[in-house]
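User: structure tokens for this one?
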Amino acid sequence: MEIEHLIFNEGPQRVAPFSHAVRAGEYLFVTGQMPTLKHDNTKLVEGGIEEQTHQVMKNLIDVLSCAGSSLEKVIFARAYLVNFQDFDRMNKVYSSYFKSDKLPGRTCIGVTGLAVGALVEIDFIAAT
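Assistant:
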């Protein structure tokens, strides 16, 4: 199986040494995205969990697009939350990006902290 490591200049700036995504065969593994501004990985979008979730989804969409994929091809997601009391508000924003009958599989994990002080991080597995 051919494995391709993808780094996109036009994608969101990376906050650590990783590929934006890795294509393995027909699958695309998208690195967890943070709610950072697209061109400044040191600054979180202003606001709370809703604004941060929107920014994470925008960053994920950018990476999917650069890799030739889309939200419609997302198979599985993992969401990481610092505060599980944000679960319902994060879900409301997250689900607004998908058709209600085409939601990907998902796991949501509570964590003690995330890079750059984020409240949420989400990664995807998608088809290419």
